[in-house]
Amino acid sequence: MEIDRQAGVAIWHQIEQQLAGEIAAGRPAPGAQLPNELEIARRFGVHRHTARRAVAALVGRGLVRIARGQGTFVEDGVIDYVIGKRTRFSANLLAQSREPGHRLLAASEIKCPPEVAKALKLATSTRVVLLETVGEADGQPISVSSNYFPAKRFPDLATIYQAEWSVTKTLKRFGIDDYTRQVTRVTARMPSPSDAEHLHQPRTRPILVTESVDVDGRGVPIAYHEARFSGERVQLVIEP
Fold it and tell me: What is the rounded distance in angstroms from the CA atom of residue 78 to the CA atom of residue 87?
């Protein structure tokens, strides 16, 4: 495909489409390194910043990933995210030799929403801690989550989370050495503008949504999670 400078379509987008088509056809193969920006620029006869924008768009679509100091690589398949009795974000990714990452978007203490109160068996007047987070794999966002915890049982949870960057480690600080998944519900929908932005994907591509409740060793609900996963980058694997 030649670049059509009279087509009325941005040149970087034409390059993105060409490279995306080649990746879909297996050239280069999954896991292989993509030519660098200078090589792409030379191939298409464009400035390097145009090639850079095309590559950035491929990253945003989850087709390639950038490994710091190594280069850009074709994604080698979707991530199997296991949902079972003990679902752990970092453990799921480490098991697939991927680097887990977390970003905290916002932390607040709010009045418990009705659906959360029902799931956690709390009165709607109860206060809960809400953590809005982004989960990453190899630096690529794969999920946006809303996580609710009873504020009375977990005072100062947000501060502790920002020190530990792990829900499991944070709960251990409150004496909860283990917890299990009581229930998980899975649906699909189109992303909100905010979720699409955080996941680096268009609003026209669906996301997978899980709603789940975690309980302590006595079976008492301790957390309610709504996680929105990129449908292109993640497939959910349900374990009995």
Answer: 18
What is the rounded CA–CA span in Å between residue 116 and residue 147?
Answer: 10
CATH number at residue 183: 3.40.1410.10
Rounded to whole angstroms, the Cα distance separating 103 from 217 reads: 28
pTM for this entry: 0.72
The total number of residues shown for the chain amounts to 240
Backbone angles phi, psi at 82, to 5 degrees: -80, 130
pLDDT digits (tens, 9 = 90+) for 175-198: 999 999 999 999 999 999 999 999
Over the range 181-197, which residues count as b (16 or more CB within 10 Å of their CB) and which as e?
A: beebeeeeeebeeebbe
- Distance CA(198)–CA(79), nearest Å, equals 18
Q: What are phi and psi of 61, to 5 degrees?
A: -85, -5
- How many domains does the chain fold into? 2
Q: What is the dihedral of CA 169, 127, 83, 99, to 10 degrees?
A: -40
Same domain, 211 and 93: yes
